[in-house]
Amino acid sequence: MSITTKNVEHVAKLARLQLNEAEMEKFTDQLNAILKYAEKLNELDTDGVEPTSHPMPLSNVMREDAVRPSWPIESVLKNAPDEEDGQFKVPAVLE
User: Fold this and answer.
1) Are residues 8 and 24 in contact, defined by beta-carbon separation less than 8 angstroms?
2) What angle do CA 13, 18, 23 make, to 5 degrees?
3) What is the pLDDT of residues 41-90, one digit of tens each?
């Protein structure tokens, strides 16, 4: 598979990019080089290799969730610029 200048022109149009002839040629060459490299990867023997979504094993690094009492509402609201009925008051965002 190879990329043509027509393909680059089409994608540029979809992305609303204005490319001159030199840029289209440059991107065509670069994209073809990427595809050529990707074809090399097809030469690798991957029989017996398990598919992975990440190269390293993942583990959750967050702490365990523990139930604990919340802060008193007075402490939470003491630095609030404005509050009403025990809640933060913010400017309206809808008209």
Assistant:
1) yes
2) 105
3) 888 898 988 888 888 887 888 888 899 999 999 899 998 999 999 899 99
Residue whose token pair is 């540029």? 12
Question: Any residues with CB less than 8 A from the CB of 75 and at least 6 apart, and which?
Answer: none
Measured in whole angstroms, how far is the alpha carbon of residue 26 from the centre of its chain?
26
Q: What are 3-49's pLDDT values in tens digits?
A: 999 999 999 999 999 999 999 999 999 999 999 999 998 888 989 88
What is the rounded CA–CA span in Å between residue 34 and residue 31? 5
Joined tokens for residue 77? 């609201």
For tokens 């490319």, what's the residue?
A: 19
What DSSP letter does each residue of 21-87 carry, written as one string?
HHHHHHHHHHHHHHHHHHHHHTTS--TTPPP-S-SS-----SPPP---PPPPHHHHHTT-S-EETTE
